[in-house]
Specification:
This protein is mainly α and 300 residues long. It has one domain.
Length: 300
């Protein structure tokens, strides 16, 4: 199907926007560390069940060792490293600012893809990436950010977490593309990534002393329901779509479209919370959409 990768990338951005709002609510109730642990377990259960229903196996034994290796590294980079930092930045800074920082991932992904995959982008694609990111910056700066200090750290720490999270996400994208070479399906690749990230997080959990707080987090039914819903939109449907997108489009283009997630997040916030739309927000959203159009036409 023509533009299948780009369409999947747009679906990814929408799913991640839903997940960001859900995870923000859950993370402020149970904490960013507990949130990441719980949501990866939930996602792994959903993914395994789906794989059993579609392929008759709870784990992709048909994947080759190189594929498993790249996908496992991708899970460590994207989930264990990147998302752990992203969720901390999320609860400190709020969804808008954290999403803006994560939108730096396309820049890093394009650099990594150049080094590891030999992918090149033409002038039109580069302009499209720049316009998309400029629109995202304009949208995010049109919103007032919460300056109240958070119990998980200062605003400066939140910014550092967001930038490093974008590096981890970008590395995860490119390693995923390497792992999917050879025709491995996106669902199998997502499960390997999630299991790798979950294993790393839970292995270090006793060293962090966070297990004693887990029972209290699980007793918070509101936070638990919100985390489950976020896991469905995020690492289950959203990440599976993202791997499909990476299989069928260049990493730099796919991740630039992923970066439109803040636009959807703002639209959802406006719908549910009746937040007013300013001129700068409308102009920024238009720029971001225009950048995506340039990316689509680059593949025409």
């Amino acid at each position: 199907m023509r533009w299948a990768g780009e369409i999947a990338a747009v679906g990814t951005a929408f799913c991640w926007a839903c997940a960001a709002n859900l995870f923000l609510s859950a993370g402020r109730r149970m904490g960013s560390v507990q949130l990441n642990r719980v949501r990866l377990i939930v996602a792994a259960l959903f993914l395994s069940a789906t794989l059993v229903a579609t392929r008759g196996a709870a784990f992709p034994t048909w994947a080759t060792r190189p594929q498993l290796g790249y996908l496992a590294l991708s899970g460590l980079a994207g989930f264990a490293f990147g998302d752990s930092l992203y969720f901390r930045g999320l609860v400190i800074l709020g969804a808008g600012h954290a999403a803006l920082l994560l939108s730096l991932a396309p820049v890093f992904a394009a650099i990594f893809a150049r080094w590891w995959l030999g992918e090149t982008l033409g002038p039109q694609a580069i302009v499209g990436m720049g316009v998309t990111l400029a629109g995202l910056v304009l949208v995010q700066t049109s919103r007032r950010q919460n300056s109240t200090p958070h119990r998980e750290g200062s605003a400066a720490l939140g910014v550092a977490c967001g930038v490093l999270a974008s590096v981890g996400a970008a590395a995860g994208y490119v390693l995923s593309k390497l792992g999917l070479q050879g025709g491995l399906d996106a669902l199998s690749g997502t499960l390997v990534r999630v299991l790798s990230g979950a294993a790393a997080i839970w292995i270090v959990a006793p060293l962090q002393g966070g297990l004693r707080n887990m029972p209290a987090a699980l007793r918070d039914r509101v936070a638990l329901r919100t985390t489950v819903a976020g896991a469905v939109f995020g690492p289950f449907v959203g990440v599976t779509l993202s791997l499909f997108a990476l299989q069928h489009s260049p990493a730099g283009i796919a991740t630039s479209i992923f970066a439109c997630s803040p636009i959807f997040a703002i639209a959802l916030g406006t719908w549910f919370h009746r937040e007013p739309l300013g001129v700068r927000m409308i102009v920024g959203a238009s720029l971001a959409v225009g950048g995506v159009v340039l990316l689509f036409s680059h593949r025409a």
